[in-house]
């Protein structure tokens, strides 16, 4: 009798441990940032920045719009695939409960930037400070489930992705001529200010327990169909936005390497989104795209005007377009980007690529 109870105690302990298996197997993944990485948080908000209707998601398994700014998967989804995890649920999703919390969470919100005044026109979005607060709240919820110590370990061992910056130019400094920020700052000073604010965000993320953080710079924001539609006669990229990205990205790389030397550990990994995009923007045919200038879904020149809606032009084959809508890459372009994140040389991933990180962390 006593024996049986003892066996049950062991077995039951093992069974309940197994029921928390997502934590033991896959690595948790946390995502912060803007529309490039939002998995659907904005569906739950009163905002105009949303991707919850047709034809968004047309190539996803359900063929339904989920709030991702893609025809199918986005960058975090494909990273989840690579680390052998389920896609992260949006933090605001009512489905994110119980064991599902152990997979991680996506806190990103389309329209946000480094600065609080970025994306104000979208009204109700989750600014980065709030995303970090929600990450704290998440940790309290997980602590109630598996205890504080285990939660700390889950967060320390997790992979983190943060994508910010593009909107601070497109949806702030350059949103309208003579914007408040452009009257306040010359471009080089604005970039220095952005980097100083980004520093605080990354330090906070570290304080909250993040120990492997992929940080993407901005892509070639002057080359997206939306900017070509406004500024380009012959398909050339908008020089002013390219100049902004050219200033911002190297200073971000420098910031990350400063933080890493202060911490004395390669916590922050820089992902050169500019170079990753530029490859297929410069030579789309080499990557199997018919064009990198015209969006699949949109209207007007380059299909770059306004939003992608049920009334827009829609290309029949999304795999041969680098851009899905006027601002966001197609799933196939996202796959090319994640390939570079996984196995790119130090020109793309600094100080190391994700495959190296995964190999390194599985040993410790
Ligand atoms: C942004 O807003 C948050 C919350 O209101 C505040 O704590 C933070 O200091 C603000 N950041 C800046 C740079 O003003
Ligand atoms: C990943 O990065 C490492 C270190 O920089 C490099 O040696 C390796 O070649 C990269 N992987 C691939 C497939 O290029």
TrEMBL record:
Protein name (record): GDSL esterase/lipase
Source domain of life: Eukaryota
Coiled-coil residues: none
Molecular function terms from GO: hydrolase activity, acting on ester bonds
Single biological process term from Gene Ontology: lipid catabolic process
Keywords from the UniProt entry: Hydrolase, Lipid degradation, Lipid metabolism, Signal
Signal peptide per UniProt: 1-26
Pfam family, one: Lipase_GDSL
